[in-house]
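Lecture notes, part 5. Sequence design as translation. It can be helpful to think of inverse folding as translation between two languages: the language of shapes and the language of residues. The source text, in structure tokens, appears below.
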């Protein structure tokens, strides 16, 4: 026995970087909803970036350790404490047997990530141990962690990273208002001209009816000129669908691989990780950019990180 879940938080699951390359077989990618935060946690521990971590949603768990570990917490600040003493985010912390880590709730952002100096043992499916709740795959029995769950770990080899860019910063950009850069989706021309203007001049809010599969938005209704039934088409993380009610849906990391609603916009790769930090009642506005601009911004983002 290595770690015991004393309390689970709202939804705590085991995640790595997901099951890439299986969407054509109907298997969602899953993995951490905010992958840069997940990778950063492992990076700070000199671990392989794909190592499993605990993903915490809105409110975090309490964990009791039965072995000594080093750990790092990244992502949304859930006011972590060891034995009721506050600890810092994005910093390596040592714990001893019988220490208790507790996380509270967060006011900005949605998800935090707990990485450990040893590897978390979980069920592998198609090369990933990420928990996919709808199909009960990966993790521990494919479920969110619950009170009394025991987590086992094993030792692992360290990775060697070098920071070559002085612009690398451990800042926390999370907020309650988000600008998401988007490109036109395949069915963007289905949107009426008046609505095209409103999409980029209006503020949307995140509905309570949101999860890892997607975020439903509340705001100015998007009117479509084409209401013909579509043949189901491939979907991707960050695709923005528009059902007949005009309320857009941002697809997340656990989203379906096919869908029949028009794909009016696509969030640029540079901002995909922000989807995982959207919380109910957050405000969103969209900024349209070209594919070339999106590509350049993504290259720039990669050049400023160690990942």
């Amino acid at each position: 026995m290595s770690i015991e879940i004393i309390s689970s938080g709202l939804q705590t699951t085991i995640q790595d970087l997901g099951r890439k390359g299986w969407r054509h077989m109907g298997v969602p990618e899953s993995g951490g909803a905010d992958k840069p935060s997940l990778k950063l946690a492992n990076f700070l521990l000199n671990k392989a970036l794909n190592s499993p971590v605990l993903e915490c949603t809105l409110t975090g768990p309490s964990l009791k350790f039965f072995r000594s570990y080093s750990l790092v917490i990244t992502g949304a600040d859930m006011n972590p404490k060891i034995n009721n003493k506050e600890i810092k985010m994005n910093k390596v912390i040592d714990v001893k047997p019988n220490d208790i880590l507790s996380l509270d709730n967060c006011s900005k952002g949605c998800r935090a990530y707990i990485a450990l100096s040893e590897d978390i043992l979980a069920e592998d499916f198609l090369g990933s141990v990420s928990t996919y709740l709808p199909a009960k795959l990966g993790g521990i029995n494919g479920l969110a962690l619950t009170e009394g769950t025991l987590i086992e770990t094993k030792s692992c080899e360290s990775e060697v990273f070098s920071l070559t860019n002085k612009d690398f910063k451990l800042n926390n950009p999370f907020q309650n208002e988000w600008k998401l850069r988007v490109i036109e989706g395949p069915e963007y021309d289905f949107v009426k001209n008046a609505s095209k203007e409103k999409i980029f001049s209006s503020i949307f809010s995140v509905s309570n009816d949101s999860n890892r599969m997607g975020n439903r938005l509340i705001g100015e209704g998007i009117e479509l000129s084409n209401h013909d039934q579509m043949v189901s088409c491939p979907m991707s993380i960050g695709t923005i669908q528009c059902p007949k009610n005009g309320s857009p849906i941002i697809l997340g990391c656990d989203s379906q691989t096919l869908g029949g609603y028009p794909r009016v916009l696509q969030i640029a790769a540079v901002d995909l990780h922000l989807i995982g930090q959207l919380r109910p009642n957050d405000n969103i506005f969209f900024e349209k950019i070209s594919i070339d601009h999106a590509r350049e911004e993504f290259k720039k983002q990669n050049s400023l990180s160690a990942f």
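The translated text above is only one of many valid answers, since several sequences can fold into similar shapes. The longest strand covers residues 177-184.
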